[in-house]
Amino acid sequence: MNSADFNWQETKKSLLEAFKTPEHAKFIEGVPAHIGRLNEVEIYCDETGCRGFGDKATDWFGMSAVMIPWESVPQARATVMGMRAEINTKRALHWIEHFGGARQERRREAVSRMVAAIPGVKVVYVVCDKRSLISSTDLKNDNDLFYNYAMRLLLERVAQELRGWRGGARKGRLILGSVKNMDHKQSRLYLEHNITYNNTFNTPWENILWPPRWLGTAERDGLQLADLYLGMFRRAIERGSEDKKEARFLLRHGHQIRRGSNGNIMGYGIKMYGDPSFLLSQPWWQDLYHGKSDL
Q1: Which segments of the chain does DSSP mark as H helices, in order?
Q2: What does DSSP assign to residue 101?
Q3: % helix, strand, coil for the chain, step of 5
Q4: Omega before 32 cis (within 30°)?
Q5: 3-122+133-224 has which CATH code?
Q6: InterPro entries from the xrefs (predicted)?
Q7: Inter-residue contact 288 to 265 (CB < 8 Å)
Q8: Is the dihedral of CA 77, 79, 80, 82 positive or negative?
Q9: How many Å apart are CA 79 and CA 118, to the nearest integer?
Q10: Is the pLDDT of residue 57 over 60?
Q11: Which of 27, 37, 263, 270 is most enclosed, with most CB atoms within 10 A?
């Protein structure tokens, strides 16, 4: 992390004041004409694991971004509605509740194939192995800052994918799943601070329409999709190390995970924050890297 993150607590007050000014709002929410003319992508983000570093905290934290081009939105919504009908529920879909149980193998098989069939979707993951992180005291002591930093890593890659979208650059409309006990106004300020003062990698943030929104999972089918993708990824990490076949749900949508021009996933569609061996040592990693779609 760099100094802009280390001093986050000191910048909050001044940013809150700047946030109220019309000049700031105009700068952040203005859409350049060349961006406004682009075709749209809907972006939905979710998180898993806890943000803290305490004794009872999870060993890792992850986030997903599911990017759905406008022409595939009807099929994505039909997929979610179809799965709700298939399992006979009117509730919002959640991987743990509806697909994670020991007797829900047929559901996992079905949903993993259905989401993999949605055309044009791109997926980005961020994984934080908290056991191997060498981080600032602020990051370890501020759960919200930890989430915000992971979110920034995720959205930097989303913005890059929008600019380099196959067939021509796109603009993205961003919705993230709301997190309990978090003030997401602070999350927005964190992003705006980094966009304005700390864009060291020249991330094309202008390709993401501003401002982002944080909503409950039940409010958008796309957020439920993001939860399902992340559930498959989590199952591969937590169970795939012992039984490689548990990664098959992830491998089925491996073709949707963002890659670099050289075919690499690491750093592009999957950002590892911490020791890369957390993923590289997984028995299914080479299958994912080489595009094997099933086990």
Answers
A1: 3-6, 8-19, 22-29, 33-36, 73-86, 95-98, 105-116, 137-141, 143-163, 184-197, 221-239, 248-251, 277-280, 285-289
A2: S
A3: 50, 15, 35
A4: no
A5: 3.30.420
A6: DUF3800 (IPR024524)
A7: yes
A8: positive
A9: 8
A10: yes
A11: 270
